[in-house]
Design a protein that fits this description.
Elements (H helix, E strand, L loop, with lengths): L2 H4 L6 E3 L4 H11 L3 E6 L2 E7 H9 L10 H4 L13 H11 L3 E6 L2 E7 H6 L4 H12 L6
Parallel strand pairs: 1-2
Antiparallel strand pairs: 2-3, 4-5
Helix pairs in contact: 5-7
Protein name: CBS domain-containing protein
Organism: Alkalibaculum sporogenes
Keywords: CBS domain
Length: 141
């Protein structure tokens, strides 16, 4: 099964220079836990709700004064729409992430989450294995 069959197509984008509080508001308004960060039309990173808590709030920063580029995860592990769910599971395990952006020609076209894997027929074992790898190592993202 391919990423394009299970990915979420709902992409929410913020700009690198946007304030973190604006990213959090977009997450709430759209019901997503991760936003893509763009700079000059290209995806340069992602921010999860967990990133906001751990990298901004818990560090005693002020979300209204910090920019998305300050806390985003850059060097993001991505996959293509043609990637197999096994490949995505492997990326999650190796990189200790719960979400993998799906990118085509430098543009984000979707997102596959650990939950998406778990809901896919025949993929519960891979999702469980990825979750075990993610939670058994320090640095969960």
């Amino acid at each position: 099964m391919k990423a394009k069959s299970i990915m979420t197509n709902k992409i929410v984008v913020v700009q690198k220079d946007d304030m973190i509080v604006d990213a959090a508001k977009k997450m709430k308004q759209t019901g997503v836990g991760t936003v893509a960060v763009e700079d000059q039309g290209k995806i340069v990173g992602i921010i999860s709700d967990r990133d906001i808590v751990l990298r901004d709030v818990a560090e005693n920063q002020t979300p209204g004064q910090s920019k998305c580029g300050d806390i985003m995860t850059s060097n993001v592990a991505t996959a293509s729409p043609e990637s197999s769910v096994d490949e995505i599971s492997q990326i999650m395990s190796e990189r200790q992430v719960k979400r993998v952006p799906i990118v085509e020609q430098e543009h984000m076209v979707g997102m596959v989450s650990l939950g998406d894997l778990a809901q896919t027929k025949g993929q519960k074992r891979e999702a469980g294995s990825a979750l075990k790898d993610i939670t058994s190592k320090p640095g969960l993202q």
